[in-house]
Amino acid sequence: MEFPTDLSTYTLWSAYLTVASLCLTIVGFVLKWGIRFRLVGVTGFMGVLTAGIFALGLGLYTRTEVPNAVRYALVYDNGANQAVISVANEVDPSKVEATLYQAADDLYSFGRVDREGNQKLTVRLRTLVHPEPGVTLPLYLGEVKRSLRVRDDDQIQVTIFTDKFAQLPQNTNS
Questions:
Q1: For the segment 29-51, what is each residue's pLDDT rounded down to a tens digit?
Q2: pLDDT at position 43
Q3: Does residue 158 sit in the same domain as residue 134?
Q4: Residue 156: inside a domain
């Protein structure tokens, strides 16, 4: 027997049971049953259980995997419309593009707002380079802009800074 994995089904049935419990509690008070106060507890528990299942259903989103994306670390996020991620410096433009798509999807949230009015989330991708001993410089390799309002945005704008790849250290193992 297969059980549905969509928590909205469980939330709906739990809500039905909560309403039925509430009706039974009201009948218990009208008829002055001895268990009427226990029914209040059952109804309260069912309400909390229904709210918990509903909240759990809001938090469980499937994470999409973008092929060719590399592991990244979130360096900066203002919680609104800007974020910066960092990757290792052994990347190429195709990996940067895939990673930007992955980060744009991962960092999307309903709670983000834009104070500047353009309604776009901007995620910039950087790596660190060491031009000489004791000096570390951030090198921005690309950025992605996506809508703050639309979950499945089909107008994502990816910009790869191809001229910056010449500044990356060359791999001496190949």
A1: 999 999 999 999 999 999 999 99
A2: 97
A3: yes
A4: yes
Which residue range is the domain that position 153 belongs to?
73-167
Helix (H) or strand (E) holding 145: strand 135-147
104-113 average pLDDT score: 82
Amino acid making up residue 112: R
109 vs 118: CA distance, rounded Å? 16
Neighbours of 168 (CB within 10 A): 15
- 36-59 vs 7-30: helix axis angle to the nearest 10? 160
Domain presence at residue 127? yes
Which DSSP helix (H) or strand (E) runs through 96?
A: helix 93-106
Q: Report d(CA 100, CA 157) in Å as an integer.
A: 10
User: For the chain, what is the mean pLDDT?
Assistant: 87
pLDDT at 10 over 60: yes
Say if residue 77 is in the same domain as residue 157.
yes
Shared domain for 44 and 84, answered yes or no, is: no
